[in-house]
Known about the structure:
heterodimer; A: mainly alpha; MetI-like fold; 2 domains; 14 helices; 79% helix; flat; B: alpha/beta; eight-stranded mixed β-sheet; 33% helix
Amino acid sequence: MHRYIFKRLLMLIPVLLGVVFIIFFIMDLAPGDPVYMVAGDQATEEELDALREQLGLSGNIFTRYLRYVNNMLHGDFGTSFVTKRDVFKTYMERLPNTIRLASLAMIIAIVVSIPLGIIAAVHQNSLKDTASMVLSLLGLSMPNFWLGLLLILVFSLRLGWLPSGGYTGFRSIILPALTVASGLAALLTRTTRSSMLDVIRQDYLRTARSKGVTERKVINKHALCNALIPIITVFGIQFSNVLGGSALAETVFSWPGVGRLVVDAINQRDIPTVTGALVMTTMLVSIVNLAVDIVYAYVDPRIKAQYTK
Amino acid sequence: MSDNNYIFDIEGLNVRYETEDGTVYAVNGLDLKLGYKKTLGLVGETGAGKTTTALAMLRLVPSPPGVVECAKLEICGQDIRSLSAQELEEVRGKDISMIFQDPMTALNPVFRVVDQIAESLEIHEHLSHHDAQEKAKELLEMVGISRSRANEFAHQFSGGMKQRVVIAIALACNPKLIIADEPTTALDVTIQAQVLDLMKDLKEKHDTSMIMITHDLGIVAEVCDEVAVMYTGRIVEQGTLEDIFERTMHPYTEGLFNSLPNIADRQAMLKPIRGLMPDPTEQPKGCPFAPRCDYAGRECESEHPALRSVTDTHKVACSAYDRQPDFLLERRKAR
């Protein structure tokens, strides 16, 4: 198991190198020369060249890539073109906000979706099932920013209960978290339901019932533990998505998170910030994925057996 | 609590599965009872309703699509039909337990084997977690699995070992009645013998009554006191082991015997029962076995034979004996 984790951590290195290259490549393809953003319209050709040299924009894509990777290995993610601040520092300032939002949204999603999915599966084709499926379809198909605007309209403007944006303590996190959670909960409900339906007719549940296990325990212990793998998979994907920043929700609620940092940086062609933020996000996503794979092993002993092979 | 002479007493059991493609009549008006400490062999082809009968006794028929109707269902002196969900949970695993057919799927893949055995001990004997684990390990040893493997999972066990775990689960609380649903079908022959011996030993040690569901008449001869032959959800013949093996009366039972390979006469051709079981979504008007029966007359197509007693112990559902009191099957004539 430890060897497996070590192997997976080693595999992070080529992944990160690849990601940095892809970001470089895409930013290179984007039209417009970022140096103008910094120098302004009035700069002469000589000034531009000097600035390029200074900003590390000179040379072809490979030299720039190697230079960047070298700096990155020394812990230097560069300085923002726009704010002139250290990218890593800026990212780390934003990250706690995103983690707060992501965690609360995931907690809400789990608390809602797993019971709902179980109920839907246990009462398959009943009214409860249909209701929860309609609800989750609604959650899936409702655009995030629109739900966010609706929530602001009702809870901030009409009722005045909660702030409409910014970060001013716990009250301000509720609306963005609900917005992000709605989509997550919808997908998790559907996953829980279908995974439970697969398990619910299995022979080993009959064995459990024949032992005299209560129906509640049959479902919540014997069935759910077997249905967890797909749920954890979807959970992991969703969690790494929101860790990368829920750009839409963060924009609607002017939430000072990573998602908005990246969106703003892209708009301003702030290449060091975009690259730095995406590399950090890649790292986070990889770590979450690794964590999910490790959790698999504890949930399902058959998977653990594969790891240790 | 009436009749205490029987470990179980079932009258008029009907089970049907109502699916979108039609209703499957799995068990049709089944009467069955068994004395204490006896072993009943429930014999018949696949699809005869044996497993459904067993599940109905524990009220484990999945509903929907299953619909169970029963005039009387008493097990260990309790009216199973009237039990609440909670009372039922107390009976399951304690008074009655079941050994399932397919050990490959009967064990939960994500729980340790020892925990799966200990679970019923914790429920019924109210043992602490530690004591239950200890007792579960003893049970594993009793069924011939080293206690060092107790903390493993089902996928680490062979088929025979899984079946023994399933048996250990069923025996954990010394139930009064064990329903063994083809406990040896999934096993190879050498393991079969071990498992059968094991079950016989345990049964004698704990004075347990047992229903042995099987289509293997060899197993029946070895472990059963009484035999009930099932066909299309009905009992067609029932009696003591001697009644069924020596004084066979129903043509279907004879057919089952004829389908057995004869090791003494290896040149002899097997005589399978011709035809197939009728479609279980249709309820035949006459004797359900008539289309496959070598002795069937025209009357058999129209009238439904009732199960009637021939002697104190022997019952048969065949109208040939009504029409012709001295009717004898070929198998009996040969003797």
